Amino acid sequence: MPTADQLLDNGQGVIDPDVFFEMNTPPTNLPEFEAKLEAFVDYHQKNKTRLVFITSGGTTVPLENQTVRFIDNFSNGHRGACSAEYFLEAGYAVVFMHRQFSLQPFHRHYTHNASTGFLDYLVQKDEDTIAVNPQYTEKMKVVLSKYHNATKNNRLLLLDFVTLSDYLFKLKSGTRILARLQEKAMYYLAAAVSDFFVPSQKMHEHKIQSSGGALTLTLDQVPKFLTPLVSVWASKGLIVSFKLETDANLLVPKARQALTRYGHQVVVANMLNTRKQTVTVITKSSQEVVSLTPDDLANHVEIEDRLIPQLVHIHDGWISSDATKACQQ
Ligand code: PAZ
């Protein structure tokens, strides 16, 4: 088998996406992932429901094949979990492909909270009865009803990933399964995906020993998977990618560069420290800043409440432009 170094496609240390899939082993639960997704997509194709494939949370980069240590990132999946709820509200069926144990739609209101743990939401009524603490009942009734509405109508499918490789195999497979929905599918790529990794061929098999002294790591660049995603895997769907920066001067230029390089439809640009208050929605012909006002913040409005309707509107246009193209043929 060729080594990663022999397969560099452009002399800059980046391998071709196809080569990545040849050189890495698919996750063992890929067949189960595919079966669940096939059934969900079939169901919604028959019901003519629009479907959004959301990726959420961060990918890990293992340093050893038998992994003790890995590189991680900051993302806890808030953007993805929150967005899923607003897409459900807008009538979409949602595939929520998330980092295992990151925030999930609806559950997010009661998890990952530094001051309130699961048991704090409960009170003991008598020896045999436990109930929701009355201070949380009103809000919980609303969340529970929306959650039941999504699950009883089979409109929310939860699928997970952990490593970068796991994510990329599932992204490829998942987008190809959704491709049959053509323009009715939206791909909302909010996961924080590592740009660097250790190819399995270069990875230590066992736990790296500290007796070897200081550890020097060399990471390869992750292939640009948006290229095949836009041109082959999901070419008919509406593709929304995210661009995260910490330097405000780079944000819009890098987002525009991504649109030009990959040729997809929308980039949502956000800054690390203000991502919950402001995002910029960028298309080839438009650029709109979506921000929460001080009043919105005081009323606990979430930025996704403003962002998702805009994307649904862009999706409306995408679907009708496709219908127009079909009529003209
Ligand atoms: O998961 P989270 O709510 O903590 O963060 C969301 C986010 C910043 C990861 C997302 O909005 C985003 O920008 N995703 C793409 C990151 C990137 O440029 O790879």
TrEMBL record:
<dbReference type="InterPro" id="IPR035929">
    <property type="entry name" value="CoaB-like_sf"/>
</dbReference>
<dbReference type="GO" id="GO:0015937">
    <property type="term" value="P:coenzyme A biosynthetic process"/>
</dbReference>
<comment type="similarity">
    <text>Belongs to the PPC synthetase family.</text>
</comment>
<dbReference type="GO" id="GO:0005634">
    <property type="term" value="C:nucleus"/>
</dbReference>
<feature type="domain" description="DNA/pantothenate metabolism flavoprotein C-terminal">
    <location>
        <begin position="177"/>
        <end position="284"/>
    </location>
</feature>
<dbReference type="Pfam" id="PF04127">
    <property type="entry name" value="DFP"/>
</dbReference>
<dbReference type="GO" id="GO:1990143">
    <property type="term" value="C:CoA-synthesizing protein complex"/>
</dbReference>
<dbReference type="GO" id="GO:0005737">
    <property type="term" value="C:cytoplasm"/>
</dbReference>
<protein>
    <submittedName>
        <fullName>DNA/pantothenate metabolism flavo protein</fullName>
    </submittedName>
</protein>
<dbReference type="GO" id="GO:0004632">
    <property type="term" value="F:phosphopantothenate--cysteine ligase activity"/>
</dbReference>
<dbReference type="GO" id="GO:1990181">
    <property type="term" value="P:acetyl-CoA biosynthetic process from pantothenate"/>
</dbReference>
<dbReference type="InterPro" id="IPR007085">
    <property type="entry name" value="DNA/pantothenate-metab_flavo_C"/>
</dbReference>
